[in-house]
Specification:
It is built from nine helices and ten strands. It is of the alpha/beta class. The strands form two sheets. Strands 2-1-3-4-5-9-10 form a seven-stranded mixed beta sheet, sandwiched between helices. α3 packs across α5. The protein is globular. The two termini are 18 Å apart. The C terminus is likely disordered.
């Protein structure tokens, strides 16, 4: 995500993440990569309970400071003022670490707090992986990385669902990993001999490096009218994934 945001010309990032070990770990990884490229982190805000989301976003965008200035002016002038809060202007990208229930609440709050025009990017964790137009409309405009298996319904997926029946639910990503492991095995010699060779798998575009480690390029996607749609081309990867 940091690489993609950088390639799109963004340089000043705000980070929203849950106040958990996982949330801090993921946001730390983004921050390290972002700053290594020369980017600037304007703020990192950690959210907890849903009833605190609004306060967390207001504080991150400096809306609370703007509202406080209005109260101070109104008190000094003893007049009712026509007032519209002003968010901070030094943000050109928001990196949001969240699971679907959190993301579906945070994105509307960002919109309501005058951040509609700021691109929001995140990891695959914010997408539930199944079509739910009504609930995911709250995520319209959010960009994220995802494996092709969750973005393109295929005949292979239909056959897997039939084979697993109801036991398939919840294990889709592991099935995709198994499919790619099966596809990779007969291609390992080719991948080793030809460094530019790729396997277009269900978990991403796979390649083998000189140390015989598999790298994966995820697909870049955007939520549009409640539907996750793959963008043109994968997200370039820089680290081995499995």
């Amino acid at each position: 995500v940091a690489d993609q945001a950088w390639q799109e010309g963004h340089r000043r990032a705000m980070v929203l993440a849950p106040n958990t070990d996982w949330g801090r770990k993921v946001s730390d990884a983004f921050i390290q990569r972002w700053e290594r490229q020369g980017g600037h982190i304007t703020s990192r805000s950690l959210f907890t309970q849903p009833d605190q989301y609004l306060y967390t976003v207001k504080r991150a965008l400096n809306i609370d400071d703007s509202e406080q200035r209005q109260r101070n002016i109104a008190r000094l002038t003893d007049r009712d003022l026509v007032f519209e809060p002003r968010r901070r202007q030094d943000i050109d990208i928001i990196f949001m670490v969240a699971f679907p229930p959190q993301a579906r609440q945070l994105k509307p709050i960002l919109n309501y707090q005058y951040a509609t025009a700021i691109p929001v990017m995140g990891t695959s964790h914010l997408y539930a992986g199944t079509l739910n137009r009504e609930r995911d409309e709250d995520l319209n405009g959010v960009q994220f990385v995802e494996m092709p298996w969750k973005l393109h319904h295929s005949a292979l997926e239909d056959s897997v669902e039939q084979a697993f029946n109801e036991e398939f639910s919840g294990y889709e990503t592991l099935v995709a990993l198994g499919v790619d492991a099966y596809q990779l095995h007969p291609r390992l010699v080719q991948l080793q001999r030809f460094p530019t060779a790729r396997v277009y798998g269900e978990t991403g575009i796979l390649r083998l490096d000189p140390n015989r480690r598999i790298h994966r390029e995820l697909t870049w996607a955007t939520i549009t009218e409640g539907v996750a749609q793959a963008s043109d081309g994968p997200l370039p990867s820089t680290e081995p994934r499995f």
